[in-house]
């Protein structure tokens, strides 16, 4: 007998033990937004579904907690971008289950250079849904030529970015990619067909190269590059052009922040799931997969509870899924070694008595969206270079968000929640530094980086909660602090994500096990695409699934009769 005195699970006995605990058509491992989206789609199709989650808080990296008395603070994401274009919210009718978004409009703000910085002083850049207003801001800050170029850029890259949205919402098969991108080359008006080579150069090129072809102002290029870099790779890497060009879609639908915090999305998903008969269990995550005759038979939770199910959707990190499978992991999963990287960023959750105040700018303008505090791409290149070397950034580059300006449910009157994101902070430091010891000093440096553009911000800060790469791993199970699970470079996207063998959401060699979450296509960020596509894969396999359930039922009846 194995340690603990419990007989090893074999064949029919394993199924009987599992059924004695609970029975479901599908178990979803992980109550992040992708896991909940998958569960909702399965429950809507009539399956009995249970979601099991180790954390006591619903939502994973899309969650909100009361960090200080009366103050609601996001634990992970704050601005929701991709999900507002994916159709997931509308398909599941989440508005009927309490989800309400506040539009971030203006959705982007880049301050004028600080006096004394290289280059002329100027006016801030303000990006809003109104393309005319955005172009007027660019004209005032950067010149008429760049404003006209930006208008053309949005016209060209709007349809291209919508094709990216389409590709994100389906399995990354060659046929699916052709269906998404082939129409881009079609003749339009008096314009002839765009050669495929030209499209390939644009899509496979770097974000920096794209920006250099279109614009002359470094300030404009820096703001757009900092927006594009939020996916992780520097804009000097091949294949990052589309990450910059996503801005074209924000003139149709801007980023949004759920009322009450980012967790408003996952709370609405839970209510939707429960309305269709599904269930979420918090504080008792999956400990291991149950396997019978080479296929999934359910899960055992950390408390020892067993849930029999012919389908398990693992909406956790792909390497956590490998651990759950243990000795049952087939070669494709056992050998998985996707690029996780050395950390991603550092987050400050600040309680302040005022919004960041940029000289000469109404806070009602600057506080609505992403405050892109970068005026030269050299700052981004230097921070990324330090990260590659395992060093702390010599010059932190901040992005600030302060949604309490438009959502009074987040903080009491006279107080605000300001999130400050600093990118490219290593998980493992080359000098062996201890993140627990470094957290406060690095927080102070990042606060000072914001204060440089918004004088007085540092004095307004009353409390700070510091999420180092190490704490992101501890708190949100983000391996090595990578909020995207797996790096978002070209070699780990689409049909390469998380590995070529696992890119189809099914796990070859272990029938009934499906993958979802940021480890899979289309990657990190709040979109729900992965959960929806995984659910579609499950439903497409329903006919053989029904046969498996019938086999499990016959086995159970045999055990009972015996």
From TrEMBL:
Transmembrane segments: none
SUPFAM superfamilies attached to this UniProt entry: FAD/NAD(P)-binding domain (SSF51905)
Gene Ontology CC annotations of this record: cytosol
Entry superkingdom: Bacteria
Amine oxidase domain residues: 206-539
GO MF entries: oxidoreductase activity
Summary of the function given for this chain in its UniProt record: Probable oxidoreductase that may play a role as regulator of mitochondrial function.
Summary of subunit composition and partner proteins: Interacts with COX5B; this interaction may contribute to localize PYROXD2 to the inner face of the inner mitochondrial membrane.
Protein name in UniProt: Pyridine nucleotide-disulfide oxidoreductase domain-containing protein 2
């Amino acid at each position: 007998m194995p340690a603990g005195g419990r007989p090893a699970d074999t064949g029919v006995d394993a199924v009987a033990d599992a059924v004695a605990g609970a029975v479901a058509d599908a178990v979803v491992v992980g109550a992040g937004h992708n896991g909940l989206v998958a569960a909702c789609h399965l429950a809507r199709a009539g399956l009995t579904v249970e979601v099991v989650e180790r954390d006591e808080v619903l939502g994973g990296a899309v969650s909100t907690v009361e960090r200080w008395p009366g103050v609601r603070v996001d634990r992970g994401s704050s601005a929701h971008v991709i999900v507002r274009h994916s159709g997931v919210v509308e398909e599941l009718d989440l508005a009927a289950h309490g989800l309400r978004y506040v539009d971030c409009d203006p959705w982007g703000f880049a301050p004028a250079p600080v006096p004394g910085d290289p280059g002329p002083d100027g006016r801030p850049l303000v990006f809003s849904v109104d393309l005319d207003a955005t172009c007027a801001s660019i004209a005032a800050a950067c010149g008429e030529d760049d404003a006209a170029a930006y208008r053309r850029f949005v016209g060209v890259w709007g349809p291209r970015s919508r094709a990216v949205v389409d590709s994100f919402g389906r399995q990354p098969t060659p046929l699916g990619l052709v269906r998404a991108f082939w129409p881009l080359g079609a003749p339009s008006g008096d314009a002839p067909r765009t050669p495929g080579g030209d499209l390939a150069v644009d899509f496979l090129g770097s974000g920096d190269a794209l920006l250099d072809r279109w614009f002359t102002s470094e300030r404009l290029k820096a703001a757009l590059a900092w927006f594009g870099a939020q996916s992780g790779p520097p804009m000097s890497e091949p294949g990052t052009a589309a990450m910059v060009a996503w801005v074209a879609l924000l003139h149709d639908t801007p980023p949004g922040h759920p009322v009450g915090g980012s967790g408003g999305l996952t709370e609405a998903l839970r209510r939707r799931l429960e309305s269709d008969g599904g269930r979420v269990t918090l504080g008792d995550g999956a400990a291991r997969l149950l396997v019978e005759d080479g296929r999934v038979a359910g899960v055992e939770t950390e408390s020892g509870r067993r849930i029999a199910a012919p389908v398990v959707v693992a909406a956790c990190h792909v390497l956590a899924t490998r651990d759950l499978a243990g000795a049952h992991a087939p070669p494709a999963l056992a050998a998985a070694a996707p690029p996780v990287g050395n950390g991603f960023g550092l987050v400050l959750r600040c309680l302040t008595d005022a919004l960041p105040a940029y000289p000469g700018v109404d806070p009602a303008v600057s506080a609505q969206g992403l405050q892109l505090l970068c005026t030269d791409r050299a700052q981004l290149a230097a921070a990324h270079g330090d990260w590659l070397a395992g060093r702390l950034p010599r010059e932190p580059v901040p992005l600030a968000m302060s949604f309490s300006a438009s959502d009074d449910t987040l903080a009491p009157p006279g107080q605000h929640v300001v999130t400050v994101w600093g990118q490219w902070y290593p998980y493992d430091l080359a000098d062996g530094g201890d993140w627990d010891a470094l957290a406060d000093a690095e927080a102070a440096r990042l606060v000072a980086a914001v204060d440089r553009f918004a004088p007085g911000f540092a004095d307004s800060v009353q409390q700070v909660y510091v999420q180092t790469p190490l704490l992101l791993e501890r708190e949100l199970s983000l391996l090595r602090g990578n909020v995207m699970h797996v790096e978002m470079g070209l070699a780990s996207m689409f049909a390469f994500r998380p590995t070529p063998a696992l890119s189809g959401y099914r796990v070859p060699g272990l029938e009934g096990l499906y993958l979802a979450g940021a480890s899979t296509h289309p990657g990190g960020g709040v979109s729900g695409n992965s959960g929806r596509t995984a659910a579609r894969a499950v439903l497409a396999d329903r006919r053989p699934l029904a046969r498996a359930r019938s086999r499990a039922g016959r086995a159970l009846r045999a055990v009972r009769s015996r």
